[in-house]
Amino acid sequence: MKLRKPPVNSLSLELLTELVISLEKLENDKSFQGVIITSDSPGIFSAGLDLMEMCGRDPAHYAEYWKAMQELWLRLYLSHLVLICAVNGVSPAGGCLLALSCDYRILADNPKYTIGLNETQLGIVAPFWFADTLVNTIGHRAAERALQLGLLFPPAEALQVGIVDQVVPEDQVQSTARSVMAQWLAVPDHARQLTKNLMRKATADRLLKQRDADIQNFVSFISRDSIQKSLHVYIEKLQKKKG
Fold first, then answer.
1. Across residues 36-48, what is the average pLDDT?
2. Most buried residue, 89, 104, 120, 144, by CB count within 10 Å?
3. The one catalytic residue among 81, 107, 119, 231
4. Phi and psi for 141 in degrees, rounded to 5?
5. What are the pLDDT digits (tens) for 180-214?
């Protein structure tokens, strides 16, 4: 499954919805047991949440957008499929969450390809379920430091801290993903699925029990004048860079 939303694969409402529908189709087709998720955009896996969906819109839109983000995470995190993430570009914030939600992560060895939950650098706060997913991957202390500082890790550091499982030369990312997939598919599927659910259910349940409250928190936070101002400034910066 290749992300193809030029230029940076930002997670727009449309892309979130398409990803959920595609995963659902694959899960319902018994001939599929695993999916390799990667990017079709050179040098960029996914830039994360689409700031245009979070800026200058009405509360109903923010609520719809956040519900779609929750839905994608739940769909990925609890998927009975084996999900291997072939990270072939930069992967900040929501892009990192996408990768963290998979079962195994392979990162291309390019110092420009950083990965991490850098929300604090944008003046926003990573939701508790983003944080939980990171804690489950790299442990509490490393996650606490990474989240507060909004760290983006280059490949060697990402491997050392455990955000990714393997770093390989850029031209070997896809072939490595296929060989790792074969390894995972060699395990009796029923036992693997039950084990995955056992390990992940409590984390997913924490969001499922308070989805509406989480949406309300997001809407009230993102609607604040100070946050809207920060987002505007950041978007302008990005547009100047493009210019």
1. 95
2. 89
3. 119
4. -65, -45
5. 999 999 999 999 999 999 999 999 999 999 999 99
49 catalytic residue (yes or no) = yes
- The runs of H, that is alpha helices, within 31-127 are 59-77, 93-100
Name, in order, each residue with C-beta under 8 angstroms of 100's C-beta and a sequence gap of 6 or more. Answer: 133, 134, 137, 163
**Residue of 11, 118, 134, 150 marked catalytic:** 118
* Active site annotation includes 116: no
Q: Alpha-carbon Rg of the chain, whole angstroms?
A: 17
Considering only CA atoms, which of 111, 50, 157 is closest in space to residue 145? 157
The CB density around residue 24, as the number of other CB atoms within 10 Å, is 12
SS3 103: coil
Question: What would the two tokens of residue 49 be?
Answer: 């949440």
In the set 34, 48, 89, 94, the catalytic residue is 94
The DSSP letter of residue 164 is S
